[in-house]
Amino acid sequence: MARAAVQRRLNWRLGQVLELIQETPRVRSVVLAVPDWPGHLAGQHVDVRLTAEDGYQAQRSYSIASPPDDNERLVLTVERLDDGEVSPYLVDELRPGDRLEFRGPIGGYFVWDASMGGPLFLVAGGSGICPLMAMIRHRTASANTVPTRLLYSSRSLADVIYRDELDRRAAIDGGLHVVHTLTRAQPEGWNGHSRRIDAEMLEEVGWAPAERPLAFVCGPTPLVEAVARTLVDLGHEARRVKTERFGPTGG
Amino acid sequence: MDESQLRLDGNAAAGVLQEIFVQELTAARGACASCGMVAHMGAQHLYMYPRAPGAVLRCNTCDSVLMVVVHDGGRRRVGLSGLTWLETREPTPGS
Fold it and tell me: Model's pTM, two decimal places?
């Protein structure tokens, strides 16, 4: 399936919206019915295209948050960017039953398949959790036991996407360790991290370089660059640190 | 805006590259013609300029231009002068 997912001409197709899930005040998951889906790899994305009545088209890439193990169902988790051309429509306007034009799966580099092993060190900033969530879900769905650590930076507790699901998965899975840092506001009694991800936090939460973890880092460009550079400084092999930056051209 | 804010990973060019070359290219390795460094295209730096009709892939080591894709007037032009070579896997039979 892995090869099938990457060696295929890209064609636009329509998916019907089955369900919309409000994840946080600014983030919504779009669940699409995708009959004949060729399968994807955790970490891949799709392009979504909107066409206005006058023919104007806007296109953006969104990571697939659902695991390859879900049949004929695709979940895209979208953060609303106020000046975006596409995300406000997806977060505010889209309704169940609507059809959405998209193509994919796309990408073959920032991907994780159970056969690639680990241990896994996943580092997310904000909606950068989406492709990493596909990896976490795929790991469980494929009964994989690769030890996995997630370090997840959010502005506040209310901004943590998939919070309940992450808590639930970590509670029943001794191989999954989830650590949050809240950079702007912390609830009363919060005893977790409350600063931006730094070298000390990466050392404390992550694996020692000698364990040769596979690291996947996803989030806003400044966070991704700082984390990737620090991991290499700490002695991790650059080619085992894969990054996906969300730039201002998104939305 | 600081130009580094425009920097994405080569991953983000996966769609436009696959459109042109049909094959998935971000898992392909490329050699920089300036510094010789070899890296997966998905790990190179991608600059997307919101008000310009193209994308520029630069070497993640020396920042030289590897590949330029320009869309204009129904045509796409791909500049490849910054790459010495590009290596992809042959499709496995039956895929």
Answer: 0.91
